[in-house]
Amino acid sequence: MKEFVYDVFTRKERGDRLQHVGYVDAFDDETAKVYAWTTYDEEKWFEMCVVKRTNVLPVNRTDGLFVAAQKAAHV
Amino acid sequence: MSETLDTTTLEGAERDALIRLIITLADSKRLMGIRYSDWTLGAPSIETGVSTASMTQDEWGHARLLYAMLKQLDIDPSPVEHDRPGEEFGSIAALDHEREDWAGTVALMTLADGALSTVLHSFAEGSFEVARTRVPKMLAEEEYHASLGAAWFRRLATSEGEASGLLKAAAEDMLPGLLAWVGADDAAARAMVDAGVIGSADDRLVAFRDDVRDLVALVGVDIDAVEPAADWDEGRGRTSGRPDEEACERARGDRNRALLVE
Predict the structure, then answer these.
(1) B110 inside 8 A of chain A by CB
(2) What's phi and psi for A49, nearest 5 deg?
(3) A4-73: CATH number
């Protein structure tokens, strides 16, 4: 079963910075949202969102997680 | 929305009907939690296991809130939760036994949990005040269960191998009982409709069928051709049978009786 990495971002209060809190592996956007909500439930988040890692475009790095995700997506 | 039900004036059959409705919902929620908990270890991925653990907690929280509604009828919920034998449980038949495979659990997640949400929607819009205030929060949490269930249902239904067949078999096994329960139309159910506590049997059935039609069609099941089960037990408000004894022991908390904290 093919799965994708989704990075999870949250903010605790309105006006807080959106912070990266971790990631989940999921086979589609809907499951990614549920997995993120049930996995990172240590706080009562004001906002949570997920981003499919392959949709993050590296700007200055030529190595690292996001570059690897881009390469894997275009294999 | 209906006028508010005055529970202090409820008597006889109408009062018993409300008790039956609350208990069948609460018992089902408790058993639903047990069936999710069976998969907190052994689900297809760690994330799915974490989600089933979370859903277990949701279901047990919902059960607690539902049992507590009995206080509105001057009934102490504690003996109801902790002292009843399995043959008095009102939980839906789909939850009587642990599902042997993940496909069966996905069918529970979409169809059985979905049936509970259909009736809870109706309950939340009715005349019983505490249902109006407490059930919407449950239904908000249930949206995650429905979303995960639907995603997994579509995934398994369209996959190669045996998963689709297992899903179809599980759906065909549980749907007749679920339709009988959602569309309950015996004297007690009609008393609740007349009192404005829930909507009509037809309305509940239409809502449930609409919710699951497209999903079950993916495995070749026509929801409009499925007949409700006929083995209705009017006393408990469910079809015949009972949950297995181990599930009842877990639901009652038998092993933790000495540590019970209310």
Answers:
(1) no
(2) -145, 160
(3) 3.10.20.520
